[in-house]
Design goal:
Blueprint (H helix, E strand, L loop, with lengths): L3 E9 L5 E10 L4 E6 L5 H8 L7 E6 L2 E2 L8 H6 L1 E4 L11 H11 L4 H14 L15 H13 L5 E5 L7 H16 L3 E5 L3 H6 L4 E5 L2 E3 L1
Parallel strand pairs: 3-8, 3-9, 6-7, 7-8
Antiparallel strand pairs: 1-2, 1-4, 4-5, 9-10
Helix pairs in contact: 3-4, 3-5, 4-5
Bound molecules: adenosine-5'-triphosphate.
Main location: membrane
GO molecular function: ATP binding; ATP hydrolysis activity; transmembrane transporter activity
GO biological process, one term: cell division
Length: 219
């Protein structure tokens, strides 16, 4: 049940700012879709609604069959186990190694340590960071930190991956590597929603786009 469905979603922040207006859309299970739009169009806000970081003012937000508008606080961690989040404020733990950072989602759910270590190494290998597992994040380049965030997001094999500008500030080669990674996850069945205004990425990938303009979805 890894589909996403928004119905007539409005989001107004407490300061009165109306950021999303009557947004309805669907992303099918197993699809990879881009979320595009100008700066301030509401892309991050939409992704935050899907991760239950923010709540809609009205409308329904279905993720994997659950309506997040009505989600009780205790259910949020259960929802997030199914989600891989690559957000801009990636919040790596700078006093912990690359390995420990990638392990975090599995530690939280009490995953058996031996099996967890295998998964962490597999994820680090996928993003090309296995040789740096003992390093501290501060010693990594921006692109490597971004790739570590992706390893951490996929280590618990989420059925839905949400990425907010994952290639922002990266050079073209890193950006391409990251897009290839998302494509690989999508090919094994993960539903992927990526917000981007990276023209280089958009010109190379023909995936469906959801385009926001001033908080409204336009075709
Ligand atoms: N917590 C908040 N309180 C009030 N306004 C907010 C809050 N978060 C975002 N906004 C406003 O909502 C609008 C949409 O922001 P959002 O971050 O969703 O846009 P975006 O399309 O992701 O932009 P960008 O591409 O620049 O990241 C902006 O005008 C922003 O200032």
């Amino acid at each position: 049940m890894s589909f996403i469905k928004l119905s007539q979603v409005n989001k107004r922040y407490p300061d009165g700012h109306q950021v999303l207006s009557n947004v309805s859309c669907e992303v099918a299970a197993g699809e990879m879709v881009f979320l595009t739009g100008h700066s301030g169009a509401g892309k991050s806000t939409l992704l935050k609604l899907l991760a239950a970081i923010e709540r809609p003012t009205s409308g329904s937000v279905l993720v994997g069959g659950q309506n997040l508008a009505a989600l009780k606080p205790f259910a949020i961690p259960i929802l997030r186990r199914n989600l891989g989040l690559v957000f801009q404020d990636h919040k790596l733990l700078f006093d912990r190694s690359v390995f420990d950072n990638a392990m975090l989602p599995l530690s939280i759910i009490g995953y058996p340590p031996k099996e967890a270590a295998k998964r962490v190494r597999a994820a680090l290998d996928k993003v090309g960071l296995l040789s740096k597992e003992k390093a501290l994040p501060i010693t990594l380049s921006g692109g490597e930190q971004q790739r570590l965030c992706i390893a951490r997001a996929v280590v618990n094999r989420p059925s839905i991956l949400l990425a907010d500008e994952p290639t922002g500030n990266l050079d073209a080669q890193y950006a391409e590597d990251i897009m290839q990674l998302f494509t690989t996850f999508n090919q094994v069945g993960t539903t992927v929603l990526i917000s981007t205004h990276d023209e280089a990425v958009l010109s190379r990938y023909a995936n469906r786009r959801l385009h926001l303009e001033q908080g409204r979805l336009v075709a």
